[in-house]
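A sample copied in:

***
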Amino acid sequence: IDVSSFKVSLRNKEGISVFQDKAYSSLTPNDRNLPVDTDYQIEVESCSEEEATTANDGWGQMRFTGKDQFNIENNKTTDLFINCTLKNAGLQIIFDPSYTTKFPTYAVTTVDSRSLTFKSSNKGVTAYYDAPEGSETVPVKLKVTGSKGGWEDRVNKEKDVSIAVGKITKLTIIYDENSGNIDIEFGTDKDTNTDDSDVTVGDTPEE
C-alpha cells in the first residue's frame, strides 16, 4: 500500500494545529522541526470518512487510520512509526455456479444508505462501509434476485447480514438443488484480515 498520499495532522498539547491534512510525501524539514514540548498528537488517515464510502462511483475504498502521542526533547531526534489499521468493512459477493446455472439472470443489491448492485458485469467489486468507532461489525441488508425466464423460476428475497470491520467479507450465493433453498455462505478474504492489513507510516520529527 502506497502511504505517500496518506494525510497527516499534528497538534500540540494545547490542541492547536501545527499542520492539517498534509500528504505524507509533502512533509518538509520545516514540518519536522518542532519546538521542544510534550504531548504532541499526530493523526494519520489514508482518506476521509466520506471518501471511504463515495470513492469509485459510490463503492468506496479502504480507509486506514492511526494516531500517536510523542514528546520532543532538546538535541534529540524522535522517531515515529504510526501503525494504521483498516477502519471500515468490505463486502464482496460471489455467485456459485449452482446459482448462476439455475438463474442465468442474477444480482444482489444492497438495501441501505446506498443501493449497490453486484452482478456478472462487475465481478470481484468490493463495497466498503464506514463503521462507528468501537464497532466490530456493520449491518447490511441484501436483496437477492435471480430468474430463468418463467415466473416459476424466479427468486426475490432479502437477507440481513453483518460484515466484519477490518476485513473483506465474502458472501457466496448458493442454490441447493436438494432443498430448493437459496443459501448464503460466509467467508473472509485472508489477505485483508486485521492482522495483514496494518500499515506503518514512519515519520521523523526533529527538534
